[in-house]
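S.,

As promised, the FE2/S2 (inorganic) cluster run. Input:
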Amino acid sequence: MPSPGTAPKINSLRLQTHADLNVLREQILAARDPQRSEVVICHGTGCLANGSQKVAAAFKEALAAAGIPAKVTPGIKTTGCHGFCSRGPLVIVRPQGLFYQRVQPKDAQEIVERTLVEGNPVERLLYKDPRSNENIYKENDIPFYKLQQRVVLHNIGKIDPTDITDTIAAGGYQALAKALSTMTPEQVVEQVERSGLRGRGGAGFPTGRKWRSALSAIKKKGRPVYVVVNGDEGDPGAFMDRTIMEGDPHAVLEGLIIGAYALGAENGYLYVRAEYPLAIRHLEIAMAQARTYGLLGANILNSGFSFDARINRGAGAFVCGESTALFTSIEGKPGNPRPKYVRSVEEGLWGRPTVLNNVETWANIPLIIERGGEWYAGLGVPHSTGTKVFSLVGKVNNVGLVEVPMGVSITWS
Ligand SMILES: Cc1cc2nc3c(=O)[nH]c(=O)nc-3n(C[C@H](O)[C@H](O)[C@H](O)COP(=O)(O)O)c2cc1C
Ligand code: FES
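Predicted complex:
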């Protein structure tokens, strides 16, 4: 939902050019007051399970009861998972950036009165450093966050994933606009090759090499070609892809559209397991909004390039995350894997050249196009570039989601 008072009313929504996208972004940012208070409430699946919807409802009531003048009424923003799930429900009060953890509905009134009205922190809800036993006030000062490098996750926890204007304000779709207005499809593939990005779905296959092989297959076999997002995420305890789809669905979509442009695909599929209803809902909303803004569908940004995508729900079979099983499942048949004598880039979905990449792989693409393959190749280690998102579950102190550079070591202290 758009944060009250922050999204401008735009009459003509369909964007025609990169300049239009920039104007819209400036309008959205100009309509915002950076000093205005905002209560950010995590609505990732973990915090929702811990009651964050009730926390949000309690904040609405407490704000109304406090009778703060309409002009300065704090906005309430709901976001995807901030990563520190074991401390949820999480509430961040901006602009101070105060980080409150394990917030219950009964705490809302105190936060409104003490923090929003008086400007003081509620000490008992702050994170306490287990080593120093001292309260930590801000998210970025908490060791759990301080030691991370949040690249793919950079927007998650900051944007409302159901509001495209929030994504656009944060720089969303800039990479797509750049690719369509200044790059040839070949140049897009070159940047992905240069980035050294490896697929995040498990095998670590170089993404640029896969795309290059698909281009060779297309030369031989012609089009159509398909691009597919693997959002099946069947590994027990894994919720990296779910978090990205829930918290920044436009990043996945933008990556997919850029890939489609590079390969000349007109149709794509997002295969998401049905156990991820929130991810599916947010992707559906994102796709509908992107169509409205002319960022998905016919003649995207008036470039002459058309592409559309649809969501297929997986039925919870682990094997359907494997490429051939996934394709047969999309084709409406039982998701049985088949021997792969011919690679998917040559004969994938419907027997056509197909590029299947994992959710996190696709979500890296906009960053690579916007900042360049060289920039990305500078992250991580030379043979495995970039960052990786990990879910921490089981018998660990800090259950949640972290993003670290590739090559980081696990140390005990
Ligand atoms: C049994 C099996 C299950 C798999 N499950 C997934 C999955 O849930 N998500 C995923 O991205 N890749 C999964 N893979 C890997 C995919 O087959 C494929 O390599 C991957 O989606 C390609 O994307 P990437 O190059 O971006 O990693 C699985 C592979 C096997 C053999
Ligand atoms: S769901 Fe809120 S921190 Fe993960």
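The CA atoms of residues 148 and 406 lie 11 Å apart. The domain at 35-146 is CATH 3.40.30.10 (Glutaredoxin).

- D.
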